[in-house]
Amino acid sequence: MAHAIKYTVYIGLLLNFGRFIWDDYWAMEAALPPDASLNDYLTQFATSTDMLGWVGLVFLFELETYAVPDEKWTAWLAGIIRGLRVFCYVMIFQGAYGYTAETLELYDTHPVDGLSDLCLIADQGKSMQISVFEYEEITSANCEDLSDENAFYTVANEVALIDQPTLDHVRYQEWVNIVNAYVWLIVVLLIEVEVFLASRDRFQNRALNRVRVSKTFFYLVLIGVMLVWLFTGYYLYAWDAFLWIFGFWAIELNLAEWEQERKEALLAT
Question: Which burial class, exposed, middle or buried, applies to 165 when counting CB atoms under 10 A from its CB (0-12, 13-18, 19+)?
């Protein structure tokens, strides 16, 4: 039953990955000018890059801790899988860098001079940012409903407009996103330490106990982030966080089973 839940969660993560690519693409279309730099595009697709790295990492952990039997775990296979894990970490760090750069760009704002009413620029192909990843094209049909403010800004070299309340809200959410990204990095590094110790049959030592206690604390932080997104209306983010927590619960389940098998093998010798 547990493994059926695990693979259901994995499928959910893949579906969410596709959804985030879609969201990043449409945000790029609305926010970036035609002459945007490669770095701008990489920053805009930070979520998709991050998700790709994480999906790959979960798959590789699944191979090492469950799918590949110990008797088939050769030095050659270990080198390939761990090399691929390094590549996944590069993408994850790129994603974390993208979140950080995107957040810092939110403090590089430029007022749109002479604009106090969005209806003045309606039907000109311009967009208004209304949340972290949502943009609306400004038209004569919606211009009065998009914002009650009389001052508007652009962020860094983006072409979409944003008002002050939305800017404050997006800044807050992006800082939450940064906390989530770096706490997950800490969690997987702790898992790497646990896998390293378990692969050397070091099950009962102070370092391993500290790793497990630290992981519990950081998982609680991640649950807190999930609740922040849930109660601020970012249901997709909250659902994604829920799936990732369960996805790594599956890896933890694999680790527990793997460690038990290695203990039994040691006792049998």
Answer: exposed
Residues facing 248 on adjacent strands? none
Residue carrying structure tokens 């932080």: 221
| Cα Rg of the chain (Å, integer) | 22
Q: Which residues contact 167 (CB under 8 A, 6 or more apart)?
A: 106, 109, 153, 155
Q: How far is CA 151 from the centre of its chain?
A: 32
Report which secondary-structure segment, H or E, holds 180.
helix 164-199
Per domain, the residue ranges of the chain are: 2-108+165-268, 109-164
What are the pLDDT digits (tens) for 34-64? 777 766 776 667 777 777 888 888 888 778 7
Does residue 131 contact residue 170 with C-beta atoms inside 8 Å?
Answer: yes
Condensed to tens digits (0 to 9), the pLDDT of residues 234-244 reads: 998 898 888 88
Integer CA distances (angstroms), 168 to 35, 110, 173, in order: 27, 15, 9
From CA 15, how far away is CA 245, in angstroms rounded? 16
pTM of the complete model beyond 0.90: no
Return all residues near 18 (Cβ < 8 A) that are at least 6 apart.
Answer: none
Q: What does the mean pLDDT of the chain come to? A: 83
Contact at 8 Å (CB) between 169 and 131? yes
Q: Which amino acid is at 207?
A: A
Positive or negative: CA dihedral 111, 112, 115, 119:
negative
Which residue from 88, 107, 67 is spatially nearest to 184, judged by alpha carbons? 88
